[in-house]
Amino acid sequence: MVEVTRLLRLAEANDGPPDEAAIAALYDEVRRLARGLMRGERANHTLAPTALANEAWLRLFGCAPTFANGPQFFAAAATTLRRVLVEHGRRRAQLKRGGRFARCEVELDAVVAPAAAAADARLLELDAALERLASFDLAKAKLVELRFFAGLSVEETARVLGVSERTAAREWRVARAYLLATLGGGDDLDA
Q1: Domain ranges, residue 29
Q2: Which of 21, 29, 38, 134 is the most exposed place for a label (fewest CB within 10 A)?
Q3: What is the count of structural domains for the chain?
Q4: Cβ partners under 8 Å of residue 179, min gap 6
């Protein structure tokens, strides 16, 4: 966290050009988070980790925002990665159901497997459940984003949220139980 905070300070140099090495290191952090997130996705996912990282990077730094520290950066990155992944799933679901009703030729290798469509639907269900959780307990929703979408450990999540590891572990168990009950069981949240 200290290193990321230092990199953010270097990248936001107000008196001169930003430090290119710091920007590259921050981009590598976003790519690391995206790779970790995509490891949990299905094997034939149509969104590559680099594409996910690039889109998240553009959203994070496209309008020159500033982050106060590493935890704020990780929280924003987790939320952004989640939104990109969910929007991708929604677009695929929309296309699966007719989209804009545009006629086009389809290559046989571009046909979506039923398992891929089910995984997209499951991601959308998870997003809706996470939105419901956020409506009454934002802290637990943020914890789930950091654990599930950013791939942070309980220890890392505790540092980002500024709570003890025991509290983070307890809150993770409660949030996970709520989401599993909401989603009708399954083992999607085994992070």
Answers
A1: 2-182
A2: 21
A3: 1
A4: 126, 129, 130, 133, 144, 189
